[in-house]
Amino acid sequence: xxxxxxxxxxxxxxxxxxxxxxxxxxxxxxxxxxxxxxxxxxxxxxxxxxxxxxxxxxxxxxxxxxxxxxxxxxxxxxxxxxxxxxxxxxxxxxxxx
Length: 97
Description:
Helix content: 10-25%
Mean pLDDT: 75
Radius of gyration: 20 Å
Strand content: 15-25%
Shape: elongated
Strand order of the largest sheet: 1-2-4-5
Order of helices and strands: HEEEEEEH
């Protein structure tokens, strides 16, 4: 009787680097330079910016944790922080001027 062994090779791809050019354009910064698969990175918006949409409770999200998946993609998508404006706050909280 013959015994056969099947070996699998799993390729993991590092995610794109979170570089200075990206952070200046997107108005956020991060706490680590690691981009290996299954790495969590916390992105923090610059002062006066937040992630859209706001949280379900209506509070501005100023931080977001993203994960580098084995497919080489950040999840959830990186996106950009947007300026907090009075118009957005009025819409969120139905403020009448």
